[in-house]
Design goal:
Length: 285
């Protein structure tokens, strides 16, 4: 039981809340658009794929960053540098989740199965990007942005503009808040010659870019509402999501990052869940 708890902590399982709600949006849009019935088996497979892919991605990130995490005072207590989980065990966990992810997609449909290695390549590849480019935040965004379009493909086996727009919303949203989160490691990243937007642009311009990404995300949230002709409940959720999106920018500043965790975890977690709930309710009204 303790080991399970350690692995859940390793992958920050609670943070699944960021992308999962958008996967559910993609799923229910596909269901309603094609007048399909909700199939429990397919629903469970989609949720399982989300969990397995994220477990693999986070576990791999912790494995690749283990030497860096050991040097960083903020991350030295993480499971691998602290010795709670060995690197070998973490890598085995990654391989197991990766195999199970691809295996699970086989039972969804052929297109999703064939695309699964590409999706895995994206979410695992993110772990190397901080050593290569300051655009690492956007690669993370792309990884999470696969959620709504992946869920839609799982139901329909075909692409559609609406889930694609939702994926771009996630890309801009996640990239924006990951830039905010990276602010707290700016000096450490400079010392270790790691790449990030705060290192490249400085704290003030990084915060401005984050705000810009969230502004684009907000525009797309309202644009997709008009395109898909969503009703009242969607607009209520979109409004709350947008307010929370910009709220996080009011509780941090260039000289005060003490509330970064509130901005990163709490605000964005609540925003995604509330938005998904109201969007899904709206589909059935």
């Amino acid at each position: 039981m303790i080991k399970i708890k350690n692995y859940l902590s390793l992958v920050k399982f609670s943070h699944t809340i960021f992308a999962m709600p958008f996967a559910l949006i993609g799923y229910f849009i596909a269901i309603m658009e094609h007048n399909y019935k909700v199939e429990l088996k397919l629903f469970i497979l989609i949720v399982l794929c989300m969990v397995l892919a994220r477990n693999a991605a986070m576990g791999f990130n912790r494995y690749i960053d283990r030497h860096i995490d050991k040097k960083n005072p903020r991350t030295v207590t993480r499971e691998i540098p602290s010795g709670t989980i060995t690197p070998k065990s973490a890598l085995f966990f990654v391989v197991l989740n990766s195999i199970l992810f691809i295996f699970t997609t086989f039972f969804i449909n052929r297109l999703v199965f064939f695309l699964s290695p590409i999706a895995l390549f994206v979410v695992l590849g993110y772990s190397f990007t901080k050593k290569i480019t300051a655009l690492c935040h956007f690669v993370l965004g792309v990884g999470l942005a696969l959620a709504p379009i992946g869920a839609y493909l799982s139901v329909t086996g075909e692409f559609h503009i609406i889930p694609v727009i939702f994926s771009v919303i996630v890309l801009c949203w996640v990239s924006g808040f990951d830039i905010i989160y990276a602010l707290q490691d700016e000096e450490f990243d400079k010392t270790e010659k790691l790449n990030s937007i705060p290192v490249l642009l400085g704290r003030k311009r990084a915060m401005l870019l984050s705000l810009t990404m969230h502004f684009i995300s907000a525009i797309l949230v309202f644009a997709v509402g008009f395109i898909a002709e969503f009703g009242f409940w969607y607009w209520l959720g979109a409004t709350i999501f947008t307010v929370l999106l910009f709220y996080q920018h009011t509780i941090i500043s260039v000289n005060n990052l003490s509330r970064v965790n509130i901005a990163f975890f709490t605000t964005n977690g609540v925003a995604s869940v509330v938005f998904a709930i109201f969007t899904i309710i709206g589909l059935y009204k």
